[in-house]
Amino acid sequence: MQTFKANLLTLAVLSAISVPAYAELANQAAEKEVEVISVLGKRVSYANNTTDEAMKLAKAPIGNVMDLIDNLPGINVGQGDAFGGDDYTTTISMRGFVIDRADQQLGITIDGIPNGGSAYAGGSKANRYLDVENTRLVEVGQGSADIASASLDALGGTINFVSANPEMEAGARFAYTSGSHNARRYYARYDSGEIFGNTTAYFSLSDSFNNRWMGSGSNGNTDRLHVEFKSVTELEKGRVTARVSYNDAHEDNYQPISLAHFKRTPRWDGLTTSWTGNPDNDQNYAEAWSTLRENTLAYVKTEWYLSDNLELDVTPYLHLQNGRGDWLPPFQVYATNANGDRINRGNGTRRVNYTHVDASGLPILDGNNSQAGAKRVSSYRHTHYEKTRFGTTANLSWELGNHRLRTGVWLESQERNQTRDWHDVIDPRVSYEFNNQPYWVQFDDDYQHDVTKFYLQDQISLGDLQLTLGVQKYLVELTRTDDLNGKGKDSIDSDSDWLPSAGLVYRVNDKVEVFAGYSKNFKAISDSILENKKTADLANLTPETATNMDLGIRYFGENFSFSSAIYNVKFNDRVVLLRYATSADGTPNYLAAGDGNFDNVGGVKARGFETSFDWRLHQNLSLTSAITFNSAEYSEDVLASKTTPAGQPALVKDYRKGDKLAGIPEKMLSLALNYNDGNYRAGLSSKYVASYFGAAKHTFAADGSEVWNRDEIPTHTLFNAYLGYEKALDNSSLFSGVDLAFVINNLTDKNYITGGSEGAYLIGAGRTASFTVSLNF
């Protein structure tokens, strides 16, 4: 088992690599053609969109960077916490693909660096690496992605979060945010300006806190410390960029709920806020449902301009993670070996849950809990996550006549450990304080994950027509070693076939272009699959693939621009979680090794229409919008063995061909009106989400009849608003500028469901406000 602790000393050492004086590069970037970046995205052969500055202004600085993309076409972001401070319940859907606790079907990269997966157990979404203020923009490739994108989850596209560059002028900024639910945040950033004649850099630090938005008293909180460093060195023949981020977060979670629960109590998730002394009640104590994560990500990107038509970039990176997940089971576990002796490590051959000890402190295993001197007991369960991940991306671009050839490789090696230990609560009548020495270690598993990806692409320019042909391949090897229970080693290769892509862009004139694209996307089998699968079962599990086709048009006018696309997606060999380890309203299965069991369950077909526009109504006034129509359904029946209401086992359908895909909104509309005259700014935005089915899995009603496509999630429309004032001050002032910002989300205090998993949903946050004062020095 590997053990490490990322700390500020590590951060400082990693930062020292930011100015490699040995590099002899040349800065020809100004002479290179820059791709168009706007709300409508890049001029490429697949649908894509990009966030703009107004989308940042509409979000509180204390918020989650994932929220920036919520108003782009095809995308729906759900967060249990008012300020996005609960990774456990963060969900994203796009074109029928999702990121949630069970599925990771969308790729996330940070400046093109892979995030290491988005799963709760060992993954990290973009909020672990970026503050909102330090994010320049977010690029979203709906359906497809740039062929060089480094991700193992990009079935439905890739979301690339691009960090801001250092400022050319030296200066400092301090900001303080205060808001609803005891929210407070400190943010400081120092920009060096140009130093050494060719380098700019910045260092930032933020410290955030807010309580869970529902309940009062001890209702849990989020506490986050975040550090970033970035430097850019311009040399004679290229550029060197180095970046380090460090994030230390403690997040108390929200509980997914059923639709029936939401209708009963739309402002409470069932977690309690007062300690009762009864473990059966206190297992739902909000402060004990916790996610603790520490993440450090560092990279150095060197861009080499080898000649007028030959470019090379190489980016080595390192990611360290240390984490823990907490729960409060209302019992302790008595595990024994084959001889009946109690053990403190390993599953053993028999496990008994007990709730009381006798007057001598010995477990009462026969259920005679009313005997004299009996005392109640409970556990504090920790699941530990540790990861070391390092790799490199390398890309070569060669312009040869009317051809632009690109080739590249992505290499990564990852070592991850997952351990679970159980601690006895010292006195459950008083609090959940626990003994640091565990009384039982349930499992201790090491995972090795090795990735090789390579690609080749040719972009051919034929006058106004641009053709793109490409192919890529992934080689992925997974290994799990059981260090505790003697099950040995499980391994699986999750290699892809050759994955083709093709596209065209035809420029009708300076303002209009049409595009079409085809790509075959791939998601490797994740190492979490190995938690519950046996080696014999793995041979029948295949990686997921999806084919995506886009056809669209873009218009770039002086005051009005738009992009529209129709798409068709076929998703094959879908891997899903067939049995959850926790129910929406029931007691968690505390002894489950992972989230449940995974299997290939057929496929999905999706087709739809997306459009977005940006209309400048006046020099200082603009209107943006995004419209989504998505129709996704299961493409084949999936059979599973279940017990009927009569108590008889039967082979029944788990999913039914032609039914709607669960948990995916079919119709969405967002509108945003923004005003900015240089000093004053204001904005009003809204997002409409039509009703959709939250669950598709087969169930039996009380009368024995079959039920399909159940849980119709109600329609909702949310409104957000912001006001701001910015003013530069003269040289006689202590400060060089001041900025005031007020943001209010869910203006009408709407009750709504915001995301979650199939059959287990999240309650959306009520009205939330924040006020930020920023001072520039």
Low-confidence sequence ranges? 1-34, 579-584
Question: Overall mean pLDDT score?
Answer: 87
Tell me roughly what share of residues is in helical segments.
Answer: under 10%
Hey, roughly how much beta strand do the residues contain? over 45%
Q: What's the alpha carbon Rg, rounded to whole Å?
A: 27 Å
Number of strands: 45
Largest sheet: 22 strands, antiparallel, barrel
Per the principal axes of the C-alpha atoms, what is the gross shape? Answer: globular
Strand-pairing-aware structural class: mainly beta
What count of helical segments does DSSP give? 5
Question: What distance separates the N and C termini?
Answer: 47 Å
Structural account:
- This protein has five helices and 45 strands.
- By secondary structure, it is mainly β.
- The two termini are 47 Å apart.
- Strand 27 (544-556) and strand 28 form a beta hairpin.
- The strands form ten sheets. It has a 22-stranded antiparallel beta barrel.
Question: What is the structure about, briefly put?
Answer:
The chain is built from five helices and 45 strands.
Annotate the secondary structure layout.
Elements: H1 8-15, E1 48-50, H2 53-57, E2 75-78, E3 91-94, E4 97-99, E5 107-110, E6 113-114, E7 135-142, E8 157-163, E9 171-179, E10 183-191, E11 199-211, E12 221-235, E13 238-252, H3 259-264, H4 279-282, E14 290-307, E15 310-327, E16 332-336, E17 350-354, E18 356-357, E19 375-376, E20 379-400, E21 403-424, E22 440-462, E23 465-482, E24 489-493, E25 499-507, E26 512-523, H5 535-538, E27 544-556, E28 560-572, E29 575-580, E30 596-600, E31 604-618, E32 621-634, E33 638-643, E34 649-655, E35 667-676, E36 680-689, E37 692-695, E38 699-700, E39 706-707, E40 710-713, E41 716-728, E42 737-745, E43 753-757, E44 760-763, E45 768-776
